[in-house]
Design goal:
The chain has 426 residues and is of the alpha/beta class. 46% of the residues lie in helices and 11% in strands. It folds into 2 domains: 251 residues, Rossmann fold, CATH 3.40.50.2000; 155 residues, 3-Layer(aba) Sandwich (Rossmann fold), CATH 3.40.50.2000. Helix 12 links the parallel strand 11 and strand 12.
Amino acid sequence: MANPNFLIVAFAGQSHINPAFQLAGRLLRTGASVTFTTTTTAHRSMSRIQASDRLTFATYSDGAEEGPKPSNFSLEQHMEDSARRCSEAVRQIIEASRDKGENFTCIFYTAVASWVGEVARCYDIPSGVLWIQPATLFEIYYYYINGYGDSITNESNDPSSPTQLPGLPPLTGRDVPTFLTPGSPFRFLFTLIEKEIQSLKGDRKARLLVNTFDALESEQLNAIDELKMVAVGRYCLPWRDEALLAHRRSDLFLAPAGPFLWVIKKALIMDGGDGDGKQEESEDQLSCMEELQKQGMIVPWCSQVEVLSHPSVGCFVTHCGWNSTLESVVCGVPMVAFPLWADQLTNAMLIQDVWKVGVRVSGNERGVVEGEELTRCLEMVLGGGERSEGMRGNAKRLKDAAREASKEGGCADKNLKALLEELVSG
């Protein structure tokens, strides 16, 4: 029997590409062949990754070479354009493979790219969604479109009123992903997620792979009877995750928390925080930067996993993207959760209230997080005492569980191998 042959399609965002490529690596280690597909622009960020006998890259244009889009070209239009370009590319890849007498065993694609699943069904090829957020997020979205929409909407309007969803911890308004917030300009992104969930419900052959592990979300992974979630995380390789904290409020770090490493985009370092790349800092901004550099190190990029793995790191201030959250868990580092939007709000709730491995910042009456608040949270994590020790103990416990899950014969390893065996046997 020929070795399995997989097509992986990654939406062109760093939070999609990293876990998708790490899945590719795990498939390659089983002896399978992998074709990895993303946009040409995204592939350039993977320049250190080389093709091999069993790893092929098949990129497609995202239109960047056609020049800048019109000023009124919306994100929604961009997504529609991406769907069209990606769908056509996947069709061409499938046809080219068949012309060589080869067939794909399964097509895996990252969440929101539901159009890939549609193409797979047209060719009668099994498909699987790689969900790059926690199982908790998938359930919130699932329940929103299955009878709990009003409850979740009311909850987001009234932060003091928690809602209980099956298999989930109580949720308040500050825990709800912003895609579900009434009036959100990114509401259309939820329609893509809704379409994805509906297609999964209607396709008994579809697989749902979740970037998590059983010990982290055991109840959530088993809460939906009609959909089987397969925990195949962790995907934590020291490749190219950016931003320990990509935040512009440099004054927040002028606090007695000890030495720090702050990873921030180069343009923000140059312009003092406005993000336009211009070197027209005010005197206050220049003074702030000088003072910061006396206390810590500011860099435009780092290997995040390598930093988090270092024993001198006592705390991770994070915006709570799922990749970063999971990496901190795997490395056993307590967190100060500083969420901004999307799934980050829910992830912050998991960090503080469920796993108890960190503290979440709170804004003032205007929603602004002040320096004193960050200092308070850092002292809670780093300052010793019963709560600090409890967070460190919980972080150590989850770190050990993650390593157990990911090792040869661990639950994540077994889950992935069982899925591959099912696919190969038909």
